């Protein structure tokens, strides 16, 4: 613990930055800091326990065989009588989508968030997976959860600078849909706020 405390001691006035929000874990080096905010679960495991948890996780676009990953996702979604917006947040179905990407993926696919997985056509589920792979690669490249494609250079600069200009529906309750102008709806689902357009995603 003393080592950790020593690292936490500010080298100067700016380092390390103050934690913002519900920080449950902070990984800190002399030059970098990573905060884990608001996780559903946060526990300290042995290596064996950690591996058992990893074995339970659904596919991750950045890990393993791309074809096998897609098939696991499609099968995992299409056998469940659970809303797709909940399945996308289920770590056993797919790893790491999180609240921003679930709202944005469903808008981009123009899918009703409440449709049960097993009622979704196979091609829709495959398209969701491919879009997740696509958005994830943009996220890794840019370091931002950028979910709007084909932006003009000015719009891209704005999106990179401001979260409010980066998303279709996420965090836009009551604001006009960027496509149809309908106010964006919001409701708690799975303990997290879900955003969607009631017209484009009817
Ligand atoms: Zn709309």
Description:
With 202 residues, this protein is α+β, with helices and mostly antiparallel strands. It has 2 domains: 36 residues, no CATH class; 150 residues, Helicase, Ruva Protein, domain 3, CATH 1.10.8. Helix content is 37%, strand content 10%. The chain is built from 7 helices and 4 strands. A two-stranded antiparallel ribbon has the order 1-2. A hairpin with a 2-residue loop joins strand 3 and strand 4. It starts with a helix and ends in a 6-residue tail after the last strand. The N terminus is likely disordered. Bound molecules: zinc ion. The site of zinc ion has 7 residues, from loops.
Keywords:
202 residues, alpha+beta, two-stranded antiparallel ribbon, 4 strands, 10% strand, globular, disordered N terminus, binds zinc ion
Rg for CA atoms = 19 Å
Count of β-strands: 4
Q: What share of residues is helical?
A: 25-40%
Structural class: alpha+beta
Indicate the overall shape.
Answer: globular
Strand content: 5-15%
CATH topology description of the largest domain: Helicase, Ruva Protein, domain 3
Residue windows where pLDDT falls under 50 for at least 5 positions: 1-7
Secondary-structure element string: HEEHHHHHHEE
The main β sheet shows up as: 2 strands, antiparallel
Please tell me the total number of domains: 2
- How do the strands of the widest beta sheet line up side by side? 1-2
- Named at the architecture level, the CATH assignment of the largest domain is Orthogonal Bundle
* Structure ligands: zinc ion
Please write the CATH class name of the largest domain. Mainly Alpha
Number of helices: 7
| Overall pLDDT score | 90
């Amino acid at each position: 613990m003393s080592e950790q405390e020593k690292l936490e001691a500010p080298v100067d006035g700016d380092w390390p930055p103050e934690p913002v929000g519900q920080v449950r874990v902070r990984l800190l080096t002399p030059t970098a800091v990573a905060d884990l905010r608001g996780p559903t679960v946060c526990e300290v495991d042995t290596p064996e326990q950690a591996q058992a948890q990893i074995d339970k996780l659904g596919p991750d676009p950045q890990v393993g065989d791309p074809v096998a990953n897609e098939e696991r996702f499609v099968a995992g979604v299409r056998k469940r009588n659970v809303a797709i917006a909940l399945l996308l947040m289920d770590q056993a179905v797919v790893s790491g989508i999180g609240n921003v990407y679930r709202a944005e993926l469903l808008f981009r696919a123009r899918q009703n968030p409440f449709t049960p997985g097993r009622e979704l056509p196979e091609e829709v589920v495959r398209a969701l997976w491919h879009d997740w792979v696509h958005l994830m690669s943009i996220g890794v490249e840019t370091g931002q959860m950028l979910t709007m494609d084909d932006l003009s250079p000015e719009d891209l600069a704005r999106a990179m600078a401001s979260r409010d200009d980066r998303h279709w529906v996420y965090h836009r309750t009551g604001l006009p849909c960027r496509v149809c102008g309908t106010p964006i709806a919001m409701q708690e689902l799975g303990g997290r706020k879900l955003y969607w357009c009631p017209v484009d995603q009817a």
